[in-house]
Amino acid sequence: MEENQSKFKKYLYNQIALILAIGGLGTGLIGIYKFVANPLQDLKTQAIELKQEELIKQLANLKDNDLHEIHLSLKRIEENEVQMGKDIVRLQTTTERLNKYLND
To answer: pLDDT grade, residue 45 (50/70/90)?
Structure first.
């Protein structure tokens, strides 16, 4: 009977050792995968950050260019308003002279 117990203990010990070995191997594989995957993830993160910085620069450039174009457009509008004011004054003086000439 003691021989059966000894065989059972040996069998149980072997099974536990096998389970622990498989678990250790699985844990090791997962650790290796994470070790290899993390640098790849870091590279992806850096690439995303570079793209984000480039997009921010492009947006700032577009904003600056648009503001410059709007400023130029407003300047042209102001120049047109001044010219229209001069034209209105010229028309008023011409009509006043014409009225004076016709009334005399």
So the answer is: confident
